[in-house]
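Internal tracking record. Fields below are filled automatically when a chain is submitted to the structure queue. Please do not edit lines marked as system-generated. If the sequence contains nonstandard residues, flag them in the REMARKS field before resubmitting.
Queue: standard
Priority: normal
Entity type: single polypeptide chain
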Amino acid sequence: MTNEIESSDAHRQPARRLPWLLAAGAFLLYCCTLNDWVSVLNLGNVARAAGWIWQPEVTGPVYYLLIRPLTWLPEAWVPMALNLFSAVCAGLVIWQLARCVCLLPHDRTHDQRERETSDGAVFTGRFSWVPPVLAVFLCGLQLTFWEHATNGSSEMLDLLMFAYVVRALLEHRYDGREHWVFRAAFVLGAGMSGNAAMIAFFPLFLAALIWIRGLSFFNVRFLLRVTIYGLLGLSLYLLLPLLTSIHSAELIGFWDALQVNVAAQKQLLLLFPRRIRCTASGSSSRRRRART
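SYSTEM-GENERATED OUTPUT FOLLOWS
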């Protein structure tokens, strides 16, 4: 009797093996189509990993830490190792995507609430495998995604960090454990240190967290712990300027190196809204000319 109840509960939980199977299949595909040498997408990162650039590193601290062990490899191996690292990140992104789709709520309409009675209102029907499989095929086989997955691009690591934040929020909504929020805050803070897009996503992170937790979001102890984890991730802003001030103090100082990273991110954040306005104004002017 107990086994029957456990089996019934297992069928009412989101699939856990399916994301791993999809990720393994995607990783195998990327390995079979992996670029084995230098390309336009990975040229800068290969030069960084091989030590061909004499300028000190001042941006991308997370990527710098993860590819730092590649400097111990022979130079001829660096491009292949860097491309393989991107393939690993791409496989993990696929896993995060499939898991996120499995955790999406299906209680938005009256019919969904009547049909789906599982914990968290996740889709657990006979065809619950269809949405994650479709999502993985649409993302994993998209040309730009595949190009970055098979070449040593830092974009795949940025996407992996973003996907983890989204998944952590969905996991927190599903089981209510706060450690998911703390991990998400740390990864979001770490992502901000090297990716301006994560800064732009920060208000959306707060809005989603308030939507999930409601009034419990304003618990002082909870907010304090989230802030501490976020600041720990943000502390990576100081890593590369500190290393630069130690090893290349004659080229650039600590504050100058920090300012270079912050200024570059500020420029990207200010440039994006302007580009949207220019695109919108251009499209409106084209419509007016077409009418005339």
